[in-house]
Amino acid sequence: MLLFLLLACGSAELEARVAELEAREAELVTQQQALEARIDALEARPAPRPSRPPVEPIDGITPRSEWHYEVEPKVLEGLDMDGIARMGRALPHRSATGDMDGIRVSGIRRGSLPDQLGLRNGDVVHQVDGHPIVGMSQAMAAYEAVQDEDELTVELTRRGSPTVLTWTLVGPDADVDAAAP
């Protein structure tokens, strides 16, 4: 009987601790969603008029529309994961239901390769060529999987609207590795 009472007390303490941790997790998810809503609101503000001159386009990238870019292989030569990582930040993103649904990109500098390929700060990337991107390991797997592709589609959400970017590798060396950030 004494053993039963000890186990019952331990079980009650354990249940209380689990409930406390679940409440803390819910609180953290709520805080993250509030921060993401604040980021969305800040990004939705009209951009101030640039006082700097326009950015020089990167030789070898030709915008065909706001959502389609042609890229010469020379632009991608020598790119590796370390170089891509220095072009901006990517953090896991949670949907309104709290599920991981992509990665939010930020820290993209004006005129950088990701900027000139159409990525914008605050974009949430969900898939690359049908490969789901819900964390950095999936992003690395997608990077490896698309090495030989001549065209990439990037499904993302920009300011709450679903969007698809297309990057087409063009030129005489279009059959080289087609990895892009």
Give a concise summary.
This protein has 181 residues and is of the alpha+beta class.
Q: Which SSEs are present, and which pair or pack?
A:
Layout: H1 2-44, E1 61-63, E2 68-71, H2 73-76, H3 81-85, E3 89-94, E4 100-106, H4 113-116, E5 124-128, E6 131-132, H5 136-145, E7 151-158, E8 161-169
Parallel strand pairs: 2-8
Antiparallel strand pairs: 1-2, 3-4, 4-5, 5-6, 5-7, 7-8
Observed structural traits:
single chain, 181 residues, Pdz3 Domain, 2 domains, 24% strand, disordered N terminus, disordered C terminus
Count the beta strands: 8
Percent range of helical residues: 25-40%
Alpha-beta classification: alpha+beta
Determine the strand fraction and express it as a percent band: 15-25%
Written account of the structure:
- The chain has 181 residues and is an alpha+beta fold.
- It folds into 2 domains: 1-44; 61-169, Roll (Pdz3 Domain).
- The protein is built from 5 helices and 8 strands.
- It has helices spanning 2-44, 73-76, 81-85, 113-116, 136-145; strands spanning 61-63, 68-71, 89-94, 100-106, 124-128, 131-132, 151-158, 161-169.
- Strands 1, 2, 3, 4, 5, 6, 7 and 8 form an 8-stranded mixed beta sheet that branches.
- A hairpin with a 4-residue loop joins strand 1 and strand 2.
- The longest helix has 43 residues, at 2-44.
- The N and C termini lie far apart (64 Å).
